[in-house]
Amino acid sequence: MRLFVAVELEPGIREALGGLIAELKRVPADVKWVEEENLHLTLYFLGEVAPPLLAGIKDELAQAAAGVLPFDLVLEGLGAFPGPRRPRVVWVGAAGGEMLLRLQRQVAARLDAFLKRPPDTLAFRPHITLGRVRSPRNLASLGHALVDRAPLKIGRQAVRDFSLMESRLSRAGPSYTCLHRYSLHAGPTAM
Questions:
Q1: Domain 2-189 belongs to what topology?
Q2: Which listed residue, 107, 108, 157, 162, has the most CB atoms within 10 A of its CB?
Q3: What is the rounded average pLDDT for all residues in the chain?
């Protein structure tokens, strides 16, 4: 199973991001844009996991929700990793204050320990991935478009839960399924 932990986005936010992607598609760069229904905020990527580990992962995520209160997620700012001059990943920034950071730290700490992984040394940079650059074709044009739209404001949504997601890859692209949802105030909820 290919798994990740995410904050799912409300339909209105996904629609606004889909509109932004439609604008950016006008730039003739070679980018694999994320489908609107797949837009999300990744908290932790587990990758390929053996199905027998699923029950333990679910238990660890239930524990990770402890002490994290609901918060607002603000989506604003357009950018790229490593930067607009040589974009590899195009993103919209996400801010959720201390509660978002606490949630991500707790999820990462519990899953790293459970899966016996070393902690990630890169700082968590909350963002929504919009697309991944596939080749250097027209990178300068893409970079200019990102700089021109950098001060963008998408909106705000209340975050009351987070999800364990399964990603299935196919020729048509990935499809995501929520396996379990975790409330930030009352523990896991059944699917």
A1: Cyclic Phosphodiesterase; Chain: A, (3.90.1140)
A2: 162
A3: 94
Of 48, 10, 42, 19, give the one whose Cα is nearest residue 163. 42
First to last CA, the chain: 18
pLDDT the model gives residue 173 = 81
Dist CA 16 CA 171 (whole Å): 26
Q: Is residue 185 among the annotated active site residues?
A: no
Q: List, for residues 112-132, the tens digit of each pLDDT value.
A: 999 999 998 888 999 999 999
Annotate 3-24 with b (16+ C-beta within 10 A) or e (fewer): bbbbbbbeeebbebbbebbeeb
- Report DSSP state, residue 123: P
Q: What is the pLDDT of residues 9-28, one digit of tens each?
A: 999 999 999 999 999 999 99
**Which candidate in 127, 144, 180, 185 is catalytic?**
127
Name the pairing type of β-strands 89-95 and 71-81. Answer: antiparallel
Active site residue 180: no
**Closest of 2, 9, 14 to residue 45, by C-alpha:** 2
Taking each helix axis as running N to C, give the angle between helix 97-115 and helix 54-64, from 0 to 180 degrees, rounded to the nearest 10: 150
Q: Are strands 40-48 and 89-95 parallel, antiparallel or unpaired?
A: unpaired
Cα–Cα distance between 163 and 5 in angstroms, integer?
6
CA 15 to chain centre: 16
